[in-house]
Amino acid sequence: MSTFYHAVVRFLHDLGSIGWENLAIAVGFHLLRLAMRCPAWRNILRASYPGVRVPLLSTAGAYLAGVGINSVIPARSGDALKLFLVKRRIEGSHYPTLGATLIPETFFDSIVAAGIVGWALVAHTLPGFGALPSLDTVDWSWPYRHQYATAIVLGVVIIASVVGLVMIEDRLEAFWARVRQGFAIFFDWRRYLLQVVTWQTASWAFRAASVFWFLKAFHMPATAHNALIVLSVQSIATLLPITPGGVGTTQGLLVVAFKDKVASSVVLGFSVGMHVAMIVANLVVGFTAIGLMLRTLRWRQVVRPEERLAER
Predict the structure, then answer these.
(1) Whole-prediction pTM value?
(2) Dihedral (C-alpha) 69, 73, 76, 82: value to the nearest 10 degrees?
(3) Cβ-contact 80, 162 below 8 angstroms
(4) pLDDT average, residue stretch 206-216
(5) Is residue 199 scored above 90 in pLDDT?
(6) What residue spans define the domains of the chain?
(7) 160 to each of 59, 77, 189, 286, 309, how far by Cα in Å?
């Protein structure tokens, strides 16, 4: 994380040299990318609840609200808010089904991200996964350096999961029926390709365009090759969302990826600048959505009673 703080100082020092027009274009493409995600998730929800009205604006509001919270709180905390908001807009919906829809919603992303990361590793633009423990700037090297502790934690999680499943065995049948309902879009691959993949393909195109213009805004070499490198780093950083937006991991890997090509200070300034710009954009649209849907920005006070009810 010290690398990130150093990068922040560098970013503030070079604030006056930013290409603001290019930055505005990059943020615009970023917002278009988010907009493409909303109808894709709505179509997944419609497949899970046929015959039930699934409002596009409500789905978009819930999705953007989750994006805003995920930008500042780690471990995908915004997904809980996203599900809470959309449940209030879909009659007869249940959390197991809604939660399951997040897998079809990210399935295509996983394939694309894996392809980009695979290209980066084969092209030797990134270090292999085995090199991660030696990168002090990478914030998720702890499991590699403490393998016994990691094994113990995983063992406890597995045992607790098995015990929990045994204790609630009588409820599992209904639970899995609702989970299966969330995968309904997968049972019609033509519908999935036309109503989900098309939107998400557009989202990835806008994401790549956004990265390209961020490179230009912060005086990095703006090429399709370098944009793919940044996308591969972002994909790796989201594997373990220990910090919001992969802070620390992203900066460390980008420095390695552009080593001997671009000065580390320039790379760090670019990484932080892009990160800050996207967070600001996500927060603006996210909290606007929260305010419109909940009539308050104190979303935790609204969500907590529902979380306790879901736990019971």
Answers:
(1) 0.79
(2) -20
(3) no
(4) 96
(5) yes
(6) 2-145+182-311
(7) 34, 22, 36, 35, 22
